[in-house]
C-alpha cells in the first residue's frame, strides 16, 4: 500500500491499522466504547480512540493522549494524517484539553522502540487500553506449511466495572481478525 500511496505523499504505519481496527471492533462491541459514570455504565455513541504520544525530554518528557474522534468512520489515510498532525503538535506546541478529551479507549504502541510486550495502565475515564509490541518476523504455520510471518503481542487492560473478561475476549477476537485481514479496514 505504501508503495502505491507514495506519489500522493501518504505513508501508513502499523499503528494506523491498529487504531482503525480498534475503532471498528469497538463499534461492533458497544461496551468497549463505554465508561464508568460513578454509579453506572455510560455507553457512548461516538467512537473516540486515544493514541499515546511520548514527548521529547526537552519538552519535559512524559506522555499525552490525543483523541482521534469518530475513528470508526475515518479511513486509514485520514487516521494516519490526523495522528501524525496531533503527535507533531503534541511534541512541538502542546495540545489543547479538547484535543485530549472524550476518548474511552487508548492505544499505546511501543513497537517502534523494539518493545515486544508490556502492560499499559488505563487512563480514566477510559475503560480500556491496548498495549502493542513490535511486529516481529517469526516462523508461522500457513496451510500446513512452515513460513515466515509477522506476529505482534497485544495486551488489553480493562476497567472491570465496565468490561468483563468475556467482553474483552470477544473484542480481541474481532480486533485480531481485522488485523489479520487488513482489507476489511479499508471499507
Structural features:
single chain, 187 residues, alpha+beta, two-stranded antiparallel ribbon, 11 strands
Oligomer: single chain
In N-to-C order, the SSE pattern is: HHEEEEEEHEEEEEH
| Number of extended strands | 11
Question: Tally the helices: what do you get?
Answer: 4
Broad shape:
globular
Binned strand content: 15-25%
Largest sheet: 5 strands, mixed
How many whole angstroms does the radius of gyration measure?
17 Å
Tell me roughly what share of residues is in helical segments. 25-40%
How far apart the termini lie comes to: 15 Å
Query: What number is the mean pLDDT?
Result: 94
Can you lay out the helices and strands and say which pair or pack?
Blueprint: H1 2-5, H2 14-28, E1 34-36, E2 41-43, E3 49-51, E4 53-54, E5 63-64, E6 67-68, H3 76-92, E7 105-109, E8 128-132, E9 136-142, E10 145-151, E11 154-158, H4 165-180
Parallel strand pairs: 3-7, 7-8
Antiparallel strand pairs: 1-2, 3-6, 4-5, 8-11, 9-10
Helix pairs in contact: 2-3, 2-4
Amino acid at each position: 500500500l505504501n508503495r502505491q500511496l507514495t506519489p500522493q505523499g501518504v505513508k501508513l504505519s502499523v499503528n494506523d491499522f491498529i487504531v482503525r481496527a480498534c475503532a471498528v471492533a469497538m463499534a461492533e462491541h458497544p461496551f468497549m466504547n463505554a465508561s464508568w459514570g460513578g454509579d453506572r455504565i455510560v455507553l457512548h455513541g461516538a467512537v473516540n480512540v486515544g493514541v499515546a504520544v511520548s514527548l521529547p525530554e526537552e519538552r519535559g518528557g512524559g506522555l499525552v493522549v490525543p483523541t482521534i474522534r469518530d475513528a470508526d468512520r475515518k479511513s486509514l489515510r485520514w487516521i494516519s494524517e490526523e495522528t501524525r498532525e496531533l503527535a507533531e503538535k503534541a511534541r512541538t506546541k502542546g495540545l489543547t484539553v479538547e484535543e485530549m478529551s472524550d476518548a474511552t479507549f487508548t492505544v499505546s504502541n511501543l513497537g517502534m522502540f523494539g518493545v515486544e510486550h508490556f502492560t499499559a495502565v488505563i487512563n480514566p475515564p477510559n475503560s480500556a487500553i491496548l498495549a502493542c509490541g513490535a511486529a516481529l518476523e517469526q516462523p508461522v504455520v500457513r496451510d500446513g506449511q512452515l513460513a515466515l510471518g509477522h506476529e505482534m503481542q497485544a495486551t488489553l487492560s480493562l476497567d472491570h466495572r465496565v468490561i468483563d473478561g468475556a467482553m474483552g475476549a470477544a473484542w480481541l477476537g474481532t480486533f485480531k481478525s481485522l488485523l489479520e485481514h487488513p482489507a476489511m479496514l479499508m471499507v
